[in-house]
Design a protein that fits this description.
This protein is mainly alpha-helical. It is built from eight helices and no strands.
């Protein structure tokens, strides 16, 4: 599978430096695997969640639809093969700045609320992921309130 990941990224993206040749693709794959795990947290991966995920991946990584779908396909395989989330969070924690981690968590909350509901499993998984990424619980609460507010505003008919 590592060969598939490397060939995907070598065919679609030019590394800016030799260090990024290995780290960047693996980090993107790890982030996408976490996003997919969040999407499945409530045992239902809805069409709204799928659309939100594809849009977020395209926007964050500058990919076209085909490239984003291929990345998500590879991330799904990595997620299925994973024993736990630690292998993904470890890579993200090591390679993402605080700002990048915060954006990732915002995308995760957007994914959680994409179907209009927050399950206890989704909330628990979000807390665990934030803990594994060494993000302060206060930040988790702030982003959650922001996403809940955005959801409420979109439901407001005025």
């Amino acid at each position: 599978m590592l060969d598939a990941i490397k060939s995907f990224f070598s065919a679609t993206m030019e590394p800016e430096s030799p260090e990024q040749e290995v780290a960047e693709p693996d980090v993107r794959l790890a982030a996408c695997a976490l996003l997919i795990e969040i999407a499945y947290a409530d045992d239902e991966f809805t069409a709204d969640e799928s659309q939100h995920l594809l849009s977020a991946v395209r926007r964050q990584y500058g990919l076209d639809v085909g490239e984003a779908e291929k990345l998500l396909e590879l991330a799904e395989k990595a997620r299925e093969d994973a024993v736990d989330l630690w292998q993904f969070t470890k890579l993200i924690k090591k390679n993402y700045s605080l700002g990048q981690k915060m954006v990732l968590v915002e995308v995760m909350w957007g994914l959680v609320y994409a179907d209009g509901e927050l399950s206890s499993h989704e909330e628990s998984l979000m807390r665990r992921v934030c803990h594994l990424l060494d993000l302060a619980p206060g930040y988790l609460a702030d982003i959650r309130r922001k996403m809940e507010g955005a959801k409420d505003e979109s439901e407001d008919p005025l």
